[in-house]
DNA sequence: ACCCAGGAATTGT
DNA sequence: ACAATTCATGGG
C-alpha cells in the first residue's frame, strides 16, 4: 500500500482522498460473483444493486448459518444458468435478466473461460470480457480490477467522469469537456479517452486511485450515501 | 410525481 | 464509423 500511494497520489486532490480514507483496500472478489454483480450494476444506484443481488441470493443461493445469523450464498453458475428470464425479472433485474441468463449459460457450458483470464494481460483480458452479453468497457474494467488482479484498470462511471472532467480537465481539450459533460452516458470513444487518461496519469495502480477518488467524491454528496 | 442511477445493446444517420 | 435511442426498476 505504501508503494501504491507513492505512485498514485500524484496531486492534492488524490492525496486528500488517500489521507481521509487510508486503510481502504480493493477486494479480490470471486470472478463469477463479480461478473454477474457488475452486469446487474449497469444504470442502477448502488442501493438498488445491493437489493437486486440480495434478491437473487435469497432466491437461487443456499441458506447457511454463520455466527447465529442466516445468510444466502451467491448462486452458482449451474443454478443461475437454469433460472428463467421471468424468474430473474421478478428479482428486479429488469432488462439485465437476459444478459445474466445468457452469460451464466456461457460460463456453465465452458464456452467462456473465466478462470483463464488471470493469465492474460489487461488489454487482451478486457477484449475477451467484452464478448460476453451485458459486458461493455466499464463493466469489464470493474471485473478486471475487483476480481482479476488488474490494478491498472480504471473504470469510468458517472462519478469518475465528473471527477476527471472537474479536477483533471486541464488534460483534455475544451471541446472534449463540453461534449462529454453533455453526454448522458459516455460514448465508447469518450469512455476510452477518460479511461486512457486514468491509466497513463496514475500508472500501473490506477485502479487504486480510481477507488479512493470514487469513495471520497461520494462522501461529499450526502444524498447518495448508503 | 419526478429524477437519476458504478451502461450496454440496438437502431438510425 | 459515429451519433441517438431504447431498455426496467428502485431509491432519494
Which SSEs are present, and which pair or pack?
Elements: H1 2-8, H2 12-21, H3 31-40, H4 46-60, E1 63-66, E2 69-72, H5 77-82, H6 85-90, H7 96-108, H8 122-129, H9 137-147, H10 158-167, H11 174-182, H12 188-202, H13 206-219
Antiparallel strand pairs: 1-2
Helix pairs in contact: 2-13, 3-7, 3-9, 8-9, 12-13
The chain binds a DNA duplex (13 and 12 nucleotides) through residues 38-39, 41-49, 51-52, 89, 92-97, 99, 133-139, 142, 155-160, 184-189, 191, 214, 218, 223-224, 226.
Q: Can you put this structure into words, describing what you see?
A:
There is one protein chain. By secondary structure, the protein is mainly alpha-helical. The chain has helices at 2-8, 12-21, 31-40, 46-60, 77-82, 85-90, 96-108, 122-129, 137-147, 158-167, 174-182, 188-202, 206-219; strands spanning 63-66, 69-72. The protein has a two-stranded antiparallel ribbon with strand order 1-2. Strand 1 and strand 2 form a beta hairpin. Helix 2 crosses helix 13 (206-219), helix 3 (31-40) packs antiparallel against helix 7 (96-108) and helix 12 (188-202) packs across helix 13 (206-219). The longest helix has 15 residues, at 46-60. The model has no long low-confidence stretch (mean pLDDT 95). It binds a DNA duplex (13 and 12 nucleotides) through helix 4, helix 7, helix 9, helix 10 and helix 12.
Amino acid at each position: 500500500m505504501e508503494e501504491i500511494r507513492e505512485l498514485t497520489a500524484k496531486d492534492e486532490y488524490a492525496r486528500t482522498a488517500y489521507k481521509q480514507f487510508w486503510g481502504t483496500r480493493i477486494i479480490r472478489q470471486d470472478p463469477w460473483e463479480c461478473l454477474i454483480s457488475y452486469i446487474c450494476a449497469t444504470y442502477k444506484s448502488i442501493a438498488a444493486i445491493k437489493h437486486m443481488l440480495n434478491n437473487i441470493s435469497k432466491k437461487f443461493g443456499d441458506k447457511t448459518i454463520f455466527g447465529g445469523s442466516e445468510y444466502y450464498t451467491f448462486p452458482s453458475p449451474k443454478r443461475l444458468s437454469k433460472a428463467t428470464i421471468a424468474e430473474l425479472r421478478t428479482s428486479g433485474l429488469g432488462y439485465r435478466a437476459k444478459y445474466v441468463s445468457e452469460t451464466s449459460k456461457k460460463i456453465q457450458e465452458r464456452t467462456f473461460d473465466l478462470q483463464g483470464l488471470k493469465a492474460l494481460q489487461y488489454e487482451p483480458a478486457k477484449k475477451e470480457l467484452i464478448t460476453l452479453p451485458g459486458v461493455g468497457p466499464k463493466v469489464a474494467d470493474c471485473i478486471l480490477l475487483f476480481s482479476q488482479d488488474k490494478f491498472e484498470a480504471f473504470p469510468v462511471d458517472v462519478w469518475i467522469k465528473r471527477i476527471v472532467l472537474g479536477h483533471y480537465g486541464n488534460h483534455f481539450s475544451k471541446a472534449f469537456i463540453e461534449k462529454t459533460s453533455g453526454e448522458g452516458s459516455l460514448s465508447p470513444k469518450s469512455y476510452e479517452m477518460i479511461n486512457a487518461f486514468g491509466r497513463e496519469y496514475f500508472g500501473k495502480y490506477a485502479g487504486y486511485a480510481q477507488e479512493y477518488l470514487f469513495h471520497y467524491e461520494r462522501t461529499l454528496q450526502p444524498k447518495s450515501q448508503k
